[in-house]
Amino acid sequence: MYMWRNEETCQYLRQGYTVNGETHRKEEANMVKKSEQGTCELCGRHEVKRTEHHLIPKEKGGTFLPTAMLCIPCHKQIHALFTNKQLERGLHTLDALRDDERMRAFLKWIRKQPSASLPRIRKSRELRQ
Fold this sequence. Notes:
By secondary structure, the chain is α+β, with helices and mostly antiparallel strands.
């Protein structure tokens, strides 16, 4: 647990960060800067803020390889469930991601959510350990 120096700092961190006039949690702030409106290539939701997902992680040589434009929740869910090694080895296409059992359950749920919603995504227990 962090000990903050004063209540003002603590309140700033609880409120989040403002990017383009909208408030976001810290981990979302950087993603919003590189986003654009459109249809998510993974879940198919329309008029969502999208970010670029490297199908093969950049650290594994995917810097100049194909990418997909995903909504923020889908993008965050991928990185919450899988390591870069897993993404490189077997989950480097949209079809492979859709076919994964854990992603399939998430996609079924997220398709029912409003386009403006940014649900909190938590890392899987496997990745936390």
